[in-house]
């Protein structure tokens, strides 16, 4: 599935592993695993098949956003968007939900 990054920091983390020291090694490894899953699924329904990702819609002010579990209470925050080519994800942030 297509995705884009909301910030250059996240894009650099994904493409060059810049800024990886801000997170534990396990969070970074899981981030790359989850990004690999996002890249290979056909649509968001396929993400629901990965129960360990706990794909869910956020609440209140963030009700337009979704999250995927990473490691140790960290979540990958994303938004579902659509363009002329179809649906895609905008990767917003990595948040600690301890």
State the gist of this model.
The chain has 98 residues and is α+β, with helices and mostly antiparallel strands. The protein has three helices and five strands.
Could you explain the architecture of this structure?
Helix content is 31%, strand content 32%. It is of the alpha+beta class and 98 residues long. It has a single domain (3-96), classed as RelE-like (YaeB-like fold), CATH 3.30.2310.20. The chain is globular, with a radius of gyration of 13 Å. The termini are far apart.
Summary tags:
single chain; 98 residues; alpha+beta; YaeB-like fold; five-stranded mixed sheet; 31% helix; globular
Quaternary organization: single chain
Number of domains: 1
**CATH class descriptor:** Alpha Beta
Q: How many distinct beta strands?
A: 5
Give the overall average pLDDT: 94
Q: What structural class do the secondary elements suggest?
A: alpha+beta
Major beta sheet summary? 5 strands, mixed
Helix content: 25-40%
Q: Do you know the CATH architecture?
A: 2-Layer Sandwich
Write the layout of secondary structure elements.
Blueprint: E1 3-5, H1 8-16, H2 25-40, H3 44-48, E2 56-57, E3 65-69, E4 74-83, E5 86-96
Parallel strand pairs: 1-5
Antiparallel strand pairs: 2-3, 3-4, 4-5
